[in-house]
C-alpha cells in the first residue's frame, strides 16, 4: 500500500499554527509566516494553488526590530488629497496598531499576485495573549528565529 498522500483533500487540509511574537525579530518572523501562508512547507506546494495554512500571531505589541529601525522606520500612506502623504514612525505604529506592523511585513514577503489577499485573510493577529482560536491550534512555533 502506498504511503503517498498525493493531491488529495487530506494533503490540502489547512492546519492552524500559532506564533508568539514576544521578543521575536519582525523580519525573521515574517518570512516564516509568509512561507506557512503560501504552503511552501508542504510537499504538494504549487505556486498557483492556494494550499497554505492558518497562522495566529499573539503578543504582536511586543515584537522587536534590530538596529535603529525602531527610531528610523517609517510607514507611509497617501490620503488621496493633494499633499496628503502621511508618515507614521515605527514606535507610534507599534503602540496604536501592532497588528498592522506584522501584516505589512508579511504582505511585503508574499508574492504580488491574486492570491496575496486570500493568503493574508488567513493571518490572524492579536496584540496580547487572548485569542478565540485556542481549540483550532495544531502546531506551535517555539524556537527563536
TrEMBL record:
Pfam family, one: Ribosomal_L13
A single GO cellular-component term on record: mitochondrial large ribosomal subunit
Cited InterPro entries: Ribosomal_uL13, Ribosomal_uL13_bac-type, Ribosomal_uL13_sf
Presence of keyword Coiled coil: no
A biological-process GO annotation: translation
Database matches in HAMAP family: Ribosomal_uL13
Protein name, entry field: 50S ribosomal protein L13
Amino acid at each position: 500500500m502506498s504511503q503517498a498522500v498525493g493531491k488529495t483533500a487530506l494533503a490540502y487540509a489547512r492546519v492552524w499554527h500559532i506564533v508568539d511574537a514576544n521578543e521575536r525579530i519582525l523580519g525573521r518572523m515574517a518570512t516564516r509566516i509568509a512561507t506557512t501562508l503560501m504552503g511552501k512547507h508542504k510537499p504538494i506546494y504549487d505556486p498557483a494553488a492556494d494550499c497554505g495554512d492558518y497562522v495566529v500571531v499573539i503578543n504582536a505589541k511586543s515584537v522587536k526590530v534590530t538596529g535603529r529601525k525602531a527610531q528610523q522606520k517609517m510607514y507611509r500612506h497617501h490620503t488621496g488629497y493633494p499633499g496628503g502623504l502621511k508618515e507614521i514612525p515605527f514606535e507610534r505604529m507599534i503602540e496604536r496598531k501592532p497588528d498592522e506592523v506584522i501584516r505589512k511585513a508579511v504582505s511585503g514577503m508574499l508574492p504580488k499576485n491574486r492570491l496575496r489577499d486570500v493568503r493574508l485573510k488567513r493571518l490572524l493577529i492579536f496584540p496580547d495573549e487572548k485569542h478565540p482560536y485556542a481549540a483550532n491550534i495544531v502546531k506551535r512555533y517555539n524556537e527563536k528565529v
